[in-house]
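Residues determine shape. Next comes a sample protein:
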Amino acid sequence: MDLARCIFDASFIGKPVGVKKPRGTEEEVNRPLELSLIEAYYLMEKGILKIFKDGKALSLEEFKAVCETHLPEFEDLYKNYKEFKDFGFTIRSALKYGTDFALYKTRPGLEHAPYLVKVLKYGQVIEPGDLISWGRLSHSVRKDLILAVTHQSGLITYVALKWFKP
């Protein structure tokens, strides 16, 4: 539990089990952490976490294969997650908004996320209705939409969209 508390307090990665919206109280952070595959991979890559299967520690490559099995777009999602984390953002899933990530400047519970991120591949066809729905939804929850376009070279281009009425 001490390690879970340290991870959550230092980086706001994961969620204390059974806590819908963690606010960082003493009671909440004394629980085990629930991690997404992306969060677990990030912590493993940083040397903070080890993943075991059948009593054997998985290598980073072995765990990446597991992640890619469950999340076919894992590589692009992870590149973006890591870059935003390195920029200093706290990152949460934004599936309920139809996007990939919600970005917080500080942390959930202290502020609302100012940004929603949709990860796309360069050359990916976007239906006009999808773009409109991402934009309208982000506007309705008072967030700016960021399209994170991952190129084959690994370079990521960010395009910020803000809804406006003429």
Observations:
- The domain at 73-166 is CATH 3.40.1350.10 (Trna Endonuclease; Chain: A, domain 1).
- The two ends are 53 Å apart (CA to CA).
- The chain has six helices and nine strands.
- Strands lie at 15-16, 33-34, 52-53, 56-57, 90-93, 101-104, 115-121, 144-150, 156-161.
